[in-house]
Amino acid sequence: MRGMIINKEKIMDVLWHHWGKMVGMLTGLVFSLLVIFIGILKTIFIGVCIYIGYVIGKKIDNKEDLWEFLDRILPPGNLK
């Protein structure tokens, strides 16, 4: 360990350059652990809930009308 010098800037540069790979590896690890510990169906359900939350959050961030979006994807109701 004596001759090994840790260069923080180089580590950060490598992490930044390979950011997508790191996120993909972490996502795969979390997904595999969820499948092992709680099962595939519960894991898929969690993934669908996360995706729905992402889509709704993106609509809010883009200042889009959430009610208009929900009217497009949900069947018409009697409460209007």
Task: Outline the secondary-structure elements.
Layout: H1 8-17, H2 19-38, H3 40-61, H4 66-73
| Order of secondary-structure elements | HHHH
> Which overall shape is indicated by the principal axes computed on the Cα atoms?
flat
Helix content: over 70%
Individual helix count: 4
Rounded average pLDDT: 86
Name the structural class: mainly alpha
Distance between the termini: 70 Å
Q: Approximately how much beta-strand content do the residues carry?
A: under 5%
Described by strand count, sense and barrel closure, the largest sheet is: none
**Regions with pLDDT < 50 over 5+ consecutive residues?**
none
Rg to the nearest angstrom? 21 Å
Counting DSSP E segments of at least 2 residues, the number of strands comes to 0
Could you give a short description of this structure?
The chain is built from four helices and no strands. The protein is an all-alpha fold and about 80 residues long.
Care to describe what's here?
With about 80 residues, the chain is mainly α. The chain has helices spanning about 10-15, 20-40, 40-60, 65-75. About 75% of the residues lie in helices and about 0% in strands. It is flat, with a radius of gyration of 21 Å. The N and C termini lie far apart (about 70 Å).
